[in-house]
Amino acid sequence: MNNNYVKYSLLFLLLVILQGFVINHISINTYINPMIYPVLILLLPYEINFFVMMLICLLLGFSVDALSNTFGLHAAATIVVGYTRPIVLRYIKPRDGYDNNMLPTLHDMGLLWSMLYCSILLAIHHLWFFIMEVFRLDLFGLILGKVFFSLIFTLVLVILFQYIFFKSSRK
Amino acid sequence: MRRLIQFLTKFRDFLIFLALQFLVLSIFFNTRNYHKAAMVNTSSAMVGWFMEKKHNITKHFDLEDQNAVLLAEVAELLNNQPESFYQLQGETYRVDDKIVKRQYTYLPALVVQSTDNKRDNYLTLNKGSAQGIEEGMGVINDYGAAGVVMSVSEHYSLVKTVLSDNIRLGVKSSKNNEYWFLIWDGEDKTIASIENVKRDIDVEVGDSIVTRGGMGQFPEGVLVGTVDEIISEDGNPLLNLNIKLAVNFSNIYHVYIIKNAFREEQLELENQILDLAGENE
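Structure tokens for the assembled complex are given below, as produced in the milestone run.
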């Protein structure tokens, strides 16, 4: 358990720094705005307490906001992801439930399940983020474009991140 | 009472979610609508320090381009020196009855962090309140107006650029002094727009649009951009203009912060009138 705290704290720092100093500077055009940090919320253990998760979401969002001058926009999106994660997990539950010794990673749950899980939650995250950022109904096409193209890049980053920093929980 | 508690425990998670969402979004929209940052941002001491460290590594990447820009500016200033003119005719008559007082001071600064692909884009500069920077000062680079200082810490300042939703920069046509507000719709980082231009105004593609100098942020006549396209819709008595911005926000490094010595005086006077109007209502 103690080991877990250290691991997730280090991941938190790594992701905030990666997002703030590297990925925020990928500015190909207005449509592509990839984000790596939501992967921390996606990869939290299944049985995590709701309060703890919301607290992590809030902290993570505010840290990324501080580095990218968005004043609460990232925090709003991470809170939505934190709230919807248990609901999404319930909907896409495998036939024999979740094993609490495993994590919702690509290695433990398989590529197909992981892609589904990540793309649903990241789509919710991006949709909320860009709706609040643009905040104009007449530019809904722009919002959808931003969500779609950023989502592709984010998914690639999230999968790469799991391959690099996680390994299978099975011994 | 028991029903209420039952209800609260049933929807506990959702209520927490709503409360947090409300808190975060109210901070976000407040910061967006007023020109004041109520949250930690890249001008804060600690984050600014990190940005400076990152900048120390990345600043060398485009030094060549930046040097070319500075050289061009020096050449232009040299061209305007009295020594570079050959006198064709002696001074026949001259009255020197001008008294001047300095109104604008320009402080050089470096951009340590910038974005250009968000809905609201900001620059972080390496000068802060220690150098006399205050909220509301205008920022320009060699090409034109870039933005307005929004938040200041001791050694850093945060600039809201022209590429923002609520910047509402006062601009005018350099040809006939008709004035409007500049807005940016978030799509193209080289194009801003002006809405509701009357049809009887003489506007042509290529006209330069300059700052109006009304808010005391910029001197009058700093270039903002040129008219790129005139959009006229059938049945609409008003025109929209697309403005090609003079500043390239994806390559911005050396900037000047404009300090207006009379700004406080101007705002004080204007506020007096606003207060009077408020009392009469």
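Residues 101 and 261 of chain B are 10 Å apart (CA to CA). Residues 45-70+99-164+253-267 of chain B form a domain with the Thrombin, subunit H fold (CATH 2.40.10.340). Further analysis is deferred to the final report.
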